[in-house]
């Protein structure tokens, strides 16, 4: 996918599933469930042991329409290793200026209006509002007035029940980790994961209807 189509796939999904666990051993099975439910943007965090191998495996395993990226990217070396493994996009909890203009889309983390503006001015096609749960959807709605051209992806502290509220407040997509994945990446129920994933997809459809 081109850089633009990668970001559009993320936005179209509405939910970016954040895969974080002590090891990435179960990420393939978890991803199958998520994609089957309709979530087509997956973020594999580099803090999970075996993350790079998991990214490479998911790129081979999943349809080309699924955007597989790397999360918790903090350095240029992280970024290069993730792209070499096949990551189509990169996500960071902070703005890393060294990654501005990188070869794949980078979605940096920011919290204040100034940080969000600077990240977008650096070329970020999406800015990750993090930790979003600290401020809530009203904060995003207030940002949309002075920064209408910045596409924002709230992440952190968002529950499945909050998805529609964030999207109607102006979020381009939302990132969900624990509330969506639960314990499925550490040996928990894939059946329960499927239920949560369908609820998340339904919430996106409701917000956009």
From TrEMBL:
UniProt entry tagged with the keyword Transmembrane: no
GO molecular function annotations of the record: lyase activity
Highest taxon of source: Bacteria
Annotated keywords: Carbohydrate metabolism, Lyase
SUPFAM superfamilies: Aldolase (SSF51569)
Pathway stated in the Swiss-Prot or TrEMBL entry: Carbohydrate acid metabolism
Pfam families, alphabetized: Aldolase
Family under the similarity heading: Belongs to the KHG/KDPG aldolase family.
Entries under PANTHER family matching the protein: 2-DEHYDRO-3-DEOXY-6-PHOSPHOGALACTONATE ALDOLASE-RELATED, 2-KETO-3-DEOXY-6-PHOSPHOGLUCONATE ALDOLASE
Subunit organization: Homotrimer.
Protein name per UniProt: 2-keto-3-deoxy-phosphogluconate aldolase
């Amino acid at each position: 996918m081109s850089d633009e189509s990668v970001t559009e796939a993320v936005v179209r999904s509405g939910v970016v599933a954040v895969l974080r666990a002590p090891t990435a051993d179960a990420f393939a099975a978890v991803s199958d469930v998520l994609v089957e439910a309709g979530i087509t943007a997956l973020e594999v965090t580099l803090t999970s042991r075996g993350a790079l191998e998991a990214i490479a495996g998911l790129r081979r395993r999943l349809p080309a329409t699924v955007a597989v990226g790397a999360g918790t990217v903090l350095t240029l070396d992280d970024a290069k290793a993730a792209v070499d493994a096949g990551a189509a996009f990169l996500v960071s909890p902070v703005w890393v200026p060294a990654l501005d203009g990188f070869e794949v889309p980078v979605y940096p983390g920011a919290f204040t209006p100034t940080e969000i503006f600077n990240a977008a001015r650096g070329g970020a096609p999406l800015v990750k509002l993090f930790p979003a749960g600290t401020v809530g959807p009203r904060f995003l709605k207030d940002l949309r007035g002075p920064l209408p051209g910045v596409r924002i992806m709230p992440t952190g502290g968002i529950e499945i029940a909050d998805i529609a509220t964030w999207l109607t407040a102006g979020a381009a997509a939302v990132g969900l980790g624990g509330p969506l994945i639960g314990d499925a990446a550490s040996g928990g129920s894939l059946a329960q994961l499927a239920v949560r994933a369908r609820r998340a997809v339904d919430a996106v459809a409701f917000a956009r209807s």
